[in-house]
Please model this.
Amino acid sequence: MTSDIRVPEDLWEGDTEGVITAWLVDDGATVAQGDLIAEMMVEKAQYEIEAPVSGRLVIAKEEDEVVAKGAVIATVET
Amino acid sequence: MTTTSKSTSRKLTIARAMAEAMAQEMRLDPRVFVMGEDVGPLGGVFGNTRGLFEEFGAERVRDTPISETAFIGAAVGAASDGMRPIVELMFVDFFGVCMDAIYNLMAKNTYFSGGKVKVPLVLMTSTGGGYSDAGQHSQCLYGTFAHLPGMKVVAPSNAYDAKGLMTAAIRDDNPVVFMYHKSLQGMGWLGTEKGATVPVPEESYTVEIGKAAVVREGHDVTLASLAAGVHHCLRAAKILEEGGFSAEVVDLRSLVPLDRETLRESVAKTGRLIVVDEDYHSYGVSGEIIASVAEYSGCRLKAAPQRVAYPDIPIPFAPTMEQWALPNADKVVAAFHEMMKENRGENS
Model:
């Protein structure tokens, strides 16, 4: 089964777009639920993205890409 | 602030690697504490103290008033009296107001006391530009600190080295200036350098202060640099490879002590040297590296050494002007081709 990793709607206030500043795991790596996997930035503030489920991570949005809330940035194959 | 992870490839940004090293040493040694502007609840404007305030509290992670003179002076006193402070000078450009505490007290107290007083202080400070923060927030000043005796100076290019060098710095009984380049912090608005975010072991380890690393092997030219410059060199080496040339890249990692042996061995092999430095061109790191190689009779140079450094001007604010002045991979490649032209001239 494949689960989407989306930018949580409540990660920051307002509808400003954010940018992925760092992936902290490689594409194709195995991640565990709750692991810190990426960092995002909105107006100089950093936000963390955690793995919602365990499995194999497939990155969909690279570093420096601008993304809106709700956007799929990766998938996890469980 | 150890980021526990079961991922198969946990990577950290330099900012997180620094915080993890500090947290691990603070757990081991109650004498270690952190002090500086916005290092507390904010976690550092460059993200390198995130999580420390939450774990260790306001007693050991101390936000200071905006007086570098006062809090760096206080840190020197604390270090001389048995504590092991990590103190942050937010931008290295601000050194002017606190230089007496740094180079007359921190760097000299051990010598003046005949070795009776140790000053185990880590002064961490941000360097570098590229994001239009102008002439008082963008300098590197590596040469300024490395020139003055009595303190070690390190500048990592990636998160693995950052964690190991920070741990080594905290455990060192001498003052260590830990210079971290803003564009490598993984903070987005300061620039993004993917190569700086690398796998980092969760357990504690040290990287020896004073050892350079050959991060890419080659035989036609040695590209020597530090911090962000290492990534320019690695990109230049890739471009040169496409043209059939093989470049070796030396990451200095530490300016004091300087690993002249690794540099000399590399140039003895390649016969050519280009130094890449975001600090000012004249009277700085690039001149010292070239002199260190030229003084050594084992290096038979095939061409005059070159440097790709910052022009001797205050750093401009206008993005086009700043980008014009900064070192980059294309400038390194151009310097290499100039060098090869010179060779052909001699042979004909």
